[in-house]
Amino acid sequence: MFRHSMICLTAAFAVVSLTASSLFAADKPNIIFILADDLGYGDLGCYGQTNFETPRIDEMAGEGMKFTDFYAGSTVCAPSRCVLMTGMHTGHCRIRGNAMYPLEPGDVTIAEVLQDAGYKTGLFGKWGLGEEGSTGVPNKQGFNEFFGYLNQHHAHNYYPTFLYRNQERISVDNVVPDEDSRGGGVASEKNVYSHDLIAENALDFIEQSKDEPFFLYMAVTLPHANNQGGPRGMEVPDLGEFADRDWPEPQKGLAAMIQKLDTDVGRVLDKLAELDIDDETIVLFTSDNGPHNEGGNRSEYFDSNGPLRGLKRALYEGGIRVPMIARWPGKIEAGSVTDHASYFGDFFATAAELSGASVPEDLGLDSVSFAPTLLGESDQPESNYLYWEFYEQGGRKAVRKGKWKAIRQPWDAEKLELYNLREDIGEDHDVAGEHPEIVAEMEGLMKESHVPSPLWKPKGRPNRN
User: What sequence ranges are listed for the domain Sulfatase N-terminal (predicted)?
Assistant: First the structure.
């Protein structure tokens, strides 16, 4: 039996009752969350990419549900992952930017909630929410097993000299002559590609956990650039079929990275079928923010943000609206598409509902379960609104409510920009002057959503992590 529970939300969201659906399996489903890094809304075939193919992810969409209006937690790495793990938006979550502050003991992650509900939990890839020896390391935040990078700077380097297994460094057979104190740099001897190790360890975790409910958070680094590599930052072992294309070298690298990502998503799905746990497992695939112009890559070359305006670090749609696909054979209708607007913070309530986990009522979450949408039910509650803050480049804020999207940039700008996303997905036409009442409402939502923090002040220049 799934336990009835209640999440107490902040003023930004209505209180949502997490009740069990009659469509849920009697046993707790395995939950796999695959998070790509800097993958744009237009970088997949099923979202319109035509320059290269992503057959396994497209197949996943054909066997499951594609979200058209799904959002990351932020427009850069660490805060987006904080929103995902804690179910709180960037107006009051602990980590609101790429500075290396850790989660603290009082923070509650969805991994902890699932662990308490009897799940074996594993993180493979990039964490970004706590440094070595801090209170924020994965093993202190709900994960039984961890393998990968602790911070985003180290994760730039695809050929590092070390990675972490749980709380210990393990050596990796690469040579990085200019390696800095955080493990960043560019390798002179490239023997072991970190993504391959991460994928193998994730597959091993599935194999070892097949007889118990598990939560796998597979936070791969593809297709992020190695920022320390300059114009040669799209590090990949083999350009494969793209080696002879008449493309700039970084674009070949991006395509090869996304192809490798696609292949390994397929390997996860194949592993579930091999172990005969396909029908017991929900798999979600998305990206932590929009596409980048780093490592020599130019996002416009492949139209990586599709019809959207803006890139990583923007709060226009291209910076935060991301692909999202969910697959659960026998539970999620194959080939379905939804325009339900949701975001990373909603994963907390969704995973809790699917697992029957008990959630403390006083967490102050900004989380609305989208399980009813996944399961084709008609009683999907809508988020009152979605909210983002960003603290670099002078700071900016954004809020979406229904069809309306408002942005204030810089942080203390006198006027808001307002867009009707139903009619103007590219945010080409600022209609603030035509709708003063909507502008006033959006200003009120921004004000009530922001909780000041001594750690986070708008900055005048970007942190390139």
Answer: 29-356
- H-helix or E-strand containing 337? strand 336-338
Q: Tokens for 219, please give them.
A: 């936070």
> Helix 249-274 and helix 55-63: axis angle, to 10°?
50
Question: Looking only at Cα atoms, what is the longest distance across the chain?
Answer: 61
pLDDT at residue 460, as a whole number: 55
CB–CB of 18/8 below 8 Å? no
Taking only the tens place, the pLDDT of each residue in 242-287 is: 999 999 999 999 999 999 999 999 999 999 999 999 999 999 999 9
- For 311-358, write each residue's pLDDT tens digit: 999 999 999 999 999 999 999 999 999 999 999 999 999 999 999 999
| Strand residues in 220-303 grouped as ranges (E) | 281-287
Of 299, 255, 263, 234, whose CA–CA distance to 51 is shortest? Answer: 255
Domains of the chain with bracketed CATH: 5-384 (3.40.720.10), 387-449 (3.30.1120.10)
Closest among 135, 138, 108, 107 to 124, alpha carbons compared:
138
Structure tokens at 103: 């989660």
Task: Tell me the sheet residues that pair with 67.
Answer: 324, 338
**Tens of pLDDT, residues 356-407:** 999 988 999 999 999 999 999 999 999 999 999 999 999 999 999 999 999 9
* Relative orientation angle of helices 194-208 and 249-274, to the nearest 10 degrees: 10
From the CA atom positions of the chain, what is the Rg in Å? Answer: 21
The encoded tokens of residue 200 equal 């193998």
Q: What does the block give as tokens for 209?
A: 């956990």
Please provide the DSSP assignment of 414-449 as one string.
SS-EEEETTT-TT-----GGG-HHHHHHHHHHHHHH
Tokens of 315: 């709060």
